[in-house]
Amino acid sequence: MIFTKTLTRWYSENKRALPWRKTKNPYYIWLSEIILQQTQVKQGLPYYDAFVAKYPTVFDLAKAPESDVLKLWQGLGYYSRARNLHASAKHIVYKLNGTFPNNYKALLKLKGVGDYTASAVASICFNEVAAVVDGNVYRVLSRYFGIDTPINSSKGTKAFKALAQELIDKKNPADFNQAIMEFGAVQCRPKSPNCAVCPLKNGCVAFNKNTIAELPVKIKSAKAKKKHYNFLVFISKDQKTLLEKRKGKGIWQNLYQFPLIETNNAQSLNALKKLLKTYEILKDTDFELVPYNKDAIIHKLSHQHLHTKFWIVYVNTLNANGVSFDKVHDFPVPALIGSFIEDFNF
């Protein structure tokens, strides 16, 4: 098909020089694909280099403490990716004797690996005819073929996967998959696609009908919830603070943060002081409370917006859990907390 041949030819002439394109090692391909989920290449590349340097094999990653993996991941967000990456590395090493799964169905059994990642690794490393479908692929296919089925509907997911599977180069699935992803990333961009020099424009329905800005179609997600976070930054006279590990299955699982009080609305200084008088560690203790940021920092996550204030709590001493200022940087923390730590200059 002209579409397939044109795309792979374009890729051979225009592909970016990226480190994971120099190897067929499934560990490196898998690592790159997990990092690039929800992350652009420009942001993900330094993390890929850091992981390869620190954990050059799946055995090295499997042996690492989870806290070290999360620390190296810090700033990328969507931390479940890092936890799943680590869990899958341990599964490969300790359950599969270090043998990486070598086909689509086996790859799907790894924690954190879905259709897209399994297809990418299977095709690139093992030449399996398994078409990838990610945001870039949705955009290219919906525009070229003029498909207005929502990409985040079950009907759309099945339809685009079937179309991609029909179009894939059966003799060279690795290059085709990388070509269509690369084309969506650098040529058929979400905004201001470079249509003037697009090799597919003559057959592109969206280009010829002037509907590029309307495709792909996506069902709007529910409105993000608004939450109010009050972080308590304890400062003792002997230069210690407190950090706590987040539990449960919510955001930032197993990362560290300053003690948190979540409220239904923004708190004034006096209102928070009253709350703190019932706070276990401050019962019958003298303390001074100072707001660090006057206006709330709005930290936007996919399903919630955190209206955040940091409050400095000056105390004489802290209990045995106190963390010395020079150790604060050793803990894996969310980007929001990491930015505060850098700004506060512990």
Mind explaining what this structure looks like?
The chain has 346 residues and is α+β, with helices and mostly antiparallel strands. The protein folds into two domains: 213 residues, Orthogonal Bundle (Endonuclease III, domain 1); 120 residues, Alpha-Beta Complex (Nucleoside Triphosphate Pyrophosphohydrolase), CATH 3.90.79. Helix content is 42%, strand content 13%. The chain is built from 14 helices and nine strands. The strands form three sheets. Strands 1, 5, 6, 7 and 8 form a five-stranded mixed sheet that branches. The chain has a two-stranded antiparallel ribbon with strand order 2-9. A hairpin with a 3-residue loop joins strand 7 and strand 8. Helix 1 crosses helix 11, helix 2 packs across helix 3 and helix 8 packs across helix 11. It is elongated, with a radius of gyration of 24 Å. It starts with a helix and ends with a helix. The model has no long low-confidence stretch (mean pLDDT 94).
SSE order and pairing:
Layout: H1 2-14, H2 26-35, H3 41-54, H4 58-63, H5 66-73, H6 80-94, H7 104-107, H8 115-126, H9 135-145, H10 154-167, H11 173-186, H12 205-209, E1 225-236, E2 240-241, E3 244-245, E4 256-257, E5 260-263, H13 269-276, E6 288-291, E7 297-300, E8 304-315, E9 323-324, H14 335-344
Parallel strand pairs: 1-8
Antiparallel strand pairs: 1-5, 2-9, 3-4, 6-8, 7-8
Helix pairs in contact: 1-11, 2-3, 2-8, 8-11, 9-11
